Amino acid sequence: AGHPMKRTTLLEKLNLPGNQTTKDLITASSKYGITEGAHDAEEIRLTEAGVKATLAEASAERNEARIKLAVTGIEPFNRLYEKFRGGKMPAVEAMRDTLDNLDEGDRAPCVDIFVQNAKFVGILRPHEGAEFIADVADAVKTSVTAPQGTTQSNSSAGDQAIAREDFDLVCFFISPIGDDNSEHRRHSDAILSSYVEKA
C-alpha cells in the first residue's frame, strides 16, 4: 500500500533469503528509483514513482511511471530508446555500438536489460514478424491493457484483470544452481553467459 516496511519483514513476506542475491535485488531496486533504503537499511519504502508503478489497476499513470523507471529515466537505456524509437529494432550489435561511452564488457548486458525492460513496459512490440520500438506516448495509451506476452481473465471477485504468462512464448534455462560461489553455480553461470543466446 506504499507504506515503509522493515527490511526483515519485507524479506519474510517475499520469502527471500538474506543472501547476496537479495542484497543485489534491493540495491538494483533503489538504483532504478523504485525503492528507498539500502540492503542494510532498517526500512525499505517505495518512492513516489515506485508507488505509481506498482498500482494494481492498469492506467496511463502506472504505465508512464513504469516506462520512466525502466527505460527513459536510465541514461544508457534512454539513449537506445531515443536513437531507435519509431522503427524496427536493429541488430543487437548496432545497439551495442550506440553505447560507445560504456565499457565494452558492459554493452551486451546493457542491451539485454534494455530489451527485457522495453518488452515489460510495452515499448517493444511485435508487428508483422518483427519487433518495433514504439513511441512512449503510444505505449502509455495503448498498454493500459495487459503487458506484452500476457493474457487477461476476469476474476470472480470483482472483474479485476489478472495478467497471466503465456507459456507458449516463454523459454527458460534449466541447470544445477548450487550456493553462491559454489562450483555448480560458477559452472552454470559460465554456460549461461558463454553458450546460451537470448532469443
Blueprint (SSEs and pairs):
Blueprint: E1 5-6, H1 7-13, H2 20-31, E2 35-36, E3 43-46, H3 48-53, H4 60-72, H5 75-84, H6 92-98, H7 104-121, E4 124-127, E5 130-133, H8 136-142, E6 150-154, E7 161-165, H9 183-195
Antiparallel strand pairs: 1-3, 2-3, 4-5, 6-7
Helix pairs in contact: 4-7, 4-8, 6-7
Structure write-up:
Helix 6 (92-98) packs across helix 7 (104-121). The strands form 3 sheets. This protein has a 3-stranded antiparallel sheet with strand order 1-3-2. The chain has 199 residues and is an alpha+beta fold. The radius of gyration is 18 Å and the shape is globular. It contains 9 helices and 7 strands; from the N terminus they run E-H-H-E-E-H-H-H-H-H-E-E-H-E-E-H. Strand 2 (35-36) and strand 3 (43-46) form a beta hairpin. Helix content is 47%, strand content 13%.
